[in-house]
Amino acid sequence: MSNPYIGGDFDDFLAEEGILADVESVAVKRVFAYQVARMMTEYNLSKSEMARRMKTSRSALERLLDPTNRSITLQTMEGAALAMGARLKVELIPAM
């Protein structure tokens, strides 16, 4: 017998609420900001040095590292990766 109280998954719920895309974009930004901060620590890079390598301002770097600030461009993400000798990988994953 199936349980009548079991519905779809959490993504289904977020989609029904109309917020799935927003939630996913926040999650992606949080992960990216975390990865950049972790690599900066690993490579012993100060914020000033990282901003210099990216050829940007420290305030722009602060926005990049702010997990709640979603106003980030692909160019900025690529600049952060290159500044640390890394590569940026962007891919599309088919929806289930």
Distance between the terminal alpha carbons, to the nearest Å? 26 Å
Query: Architecture in CATH?
Result: Orthogonal Bundle
> What string gives the helices and strands in order?
HHHHH
State the helix count.
5
Provide a compact summary of the structure:
The chain is mainly alpha-helical and 96 residues long. The protein has helices spanning 10-17, 20-42, 47-54, 58-65, 74-83. It has 5 helices and no strands.
Tags for this entry?
mainly alpha; single chain; 96 residues; 59% helix; 5 helices; 434 Repressor (Amino-terminal Domain)
Commentary on this structure:
- By secondary structure, this protein is mainly α.
- It has a single domain (10-83), classed as lambda repressor-like DNA-binding domains (434 Repressor (Amino-terminal Domain), Orthogonal Bundle).
- It is built from 5 helices and no strands.
- It has helices spanning 10-17, 20-42, 47-54, 58-65, 74-83.
- Helix 3 (47-54) crosses helix 4 (58-65).
- The chain is elongated.
- The two termini are 26 Å apart.
Write the layout of secondary structure elements.
Layout: H1 10-17, H2 20-42, H3 47-54, H4 58-65, H5 74-83
Helix pairs in contact: 3-4
